[in-house]
Amino acid sequence: MGNGSENAPVATTITSETTGLFENDFVSILEATDFNSNLDWLFERMPDDSLADLTNFYGVKDTHVASSAQSPREGHKPDGQPSRDPAIPELPIPHAENSVSPDDPWPMEWHAEHPQRSLELPALGGTDDEATQSLSRFFSAWNLGQSTVEALAHFIKLPAQRSPWQSVNLTHFPTKEKLEYCIDRYFAHFHLVCPIIHQATFDPSDDLTVTLAIASIGACYTHYNNAKAFSSTLSELNRRLLLFLAEYDRRYVRTESYLAAQLLQGLHGYCSGNKRLFELSESSRSNLVHHAKCMGLFRHRPDSNPGSLPATAVEERWRDWIHQERLLRLGWAVYEYDASVAYLHNNRPFLTIGDIHMDLPCLSQYWQAESAHSWHAMLLSAGYPSRIRLRPLIRSFYDKSQNALERLVEERHRYILVLTQVRMIWTLKEITGSPICDLFVNGPENCTADLLDATDRFARSPHTLSSSLTTTELASAIHTLQIIHVAHLYGANGLMNWLYPLLREGNEATTAFTQMSHWAAAKPEMVRNTAFHCARILSLARTYPSNCPDEPFLIFHAGTVLFYLARWLPRNTGAGSSENLVVRLDHIGAEDDTESANLRSWLRDGQAQVISLHGIPSLCSNQGRRQVLDETADLLKRRRVWGIANSFVKVVLNLRDTSKPVPDQDFIF
């Protein structure tokens, strides 16, 4: 006891010194870090971005009184008293999906095992002081002070002593009826975008993190006040819960519920308009892909078809099939989520086409069956619904196989194939941006043209689609059609690489503008073609709105690209057959009408007196370029569900107000 009392003041002094050292160094790190450099061009600065709030978030400037008033971690044991860490009864026991066995030596993947949460740092070497003092060093320009050693020890104990999160106020947690309404809105509006939940058997009490993710998305589609703020806050709280579960039991990251919840969180974060959630969606994407790989979701799984067991109950067979199909759809949803960043953000996806070996999802009619008997009644045989392999199917569009398109009766399959081709086009764009690409005789441009031609084969007339599809089917078909048009933006050499530097007006803007000018002068036909596809995206968004989470991104990119291209669209100013020709660049109608014929003629030879769009009588003028941005902002303002649209509106209107007029002669080649 005497020794303990004598050492107590020393321990207190060391703790105070090391805590102060941590506070000073950490605050200096925060002050020297530009937290907004990656997204400041898109998101406005939020009140919670201040340094004071960041330090409060990490608890750096908490007073000792506040620290003693509330325990950041219940059940935390003082140093030297190991905790038995009893299991929390409310938490689910994870049933992990593993792609490898426990004794598999493959080092790239590992079998998820029960965690050992208590951690003890093993001794490094022996305890012989003489041996320690005799250690020689290569360099002697620095030394560790005792206070630094103590600070290091204190630093690594902080996660176990302090929580980065303050207490949560759930006074306004919604009622049962409001939560049910949010979940209902999810299935009514968002389920079509990401059909990974089996609606007929969905039970909100099964996977609570999934239910929270669903509710946060569904809230965006409600008419409630503060719906967006509620949605973002609920998503952040669910993120903390998922992070806690992943740390509490590492097997949890290999579960279907974890992946589904993280996927929905990521989709919501990209479109919510919340800067923090956007950052987290991008930074967590690699983890999501990695865990899906470790679960074997991208591997081919032969059906455990019970067709030879007629005695098997229909209900049991249905449940077994649902489990298989859920995992398959989850794998595809992760792939779609990862691949979509190529055309939504011009970012590199983590998954390659070579990683994907799964069959395509089943027809939606089977997935939407309300009961085992309705599902069984649609089957043509005693087995499970037949599946289509991706690789042979996508190859058939390039080896001139007959009736390749006729085999596609499911819109989801069309979307996956189009997305895969856009993914390949993005890869070729990346190669084109290499400084040595032009040194190769057979560069990637010819391959890009072939991919664009194959992608165009999936295009269908919106006029025909609207007369033959239901409202739900039409929304999916129009979205696929918009992605086809987006493919041409990324197939236009380095166009999309130049767009962001121009919008951000940084040091690279001048170089980007020069490169775009040279490209436009060298390839006027590609400029016309790209402008046409931009106009089509805007026209489809105006005529067939769907509140798809991708829509704000597509509208923003199409509108801003068209704004820049307008100055390089050639006009015919002389007399001739095209003197009075007016081209409606965004015309959607029958293929054989006059407007469509004029448009095809202009795309071919560039001869037109006036180029116009909805709300833009003459595109090739300073006023026309400003009107493009006004129309783009108007379309974005109509997308009230997703907060990202508001961020895009600010960028578009700022571009309109700050862009310099173009001399009239620059509109004519």
TrEMBL record:
GO terms for molecular function: DNA binding; zinc ion binding. Residues 183-379 form the Xylanolytic transcriptional activator regulatory domain. The keyword Transcription regulation applies. Signal peptide: none annotated. Coiled coil: none annotated. GO terms for biological process: DNA-templated transcription. InterPro entries: XnlR_reg_dom. Keywords: Metal-binding, Nucleus, Transcription, Transcription regulation, Zinc. The keyword Nucleus applies. Residues 65-110 are annotated as: Disordered. This is Xylanolytic transcriptional activator regulatory domain-containing protein. It comes from Fonsecaea multimorphosa CBS 102226.
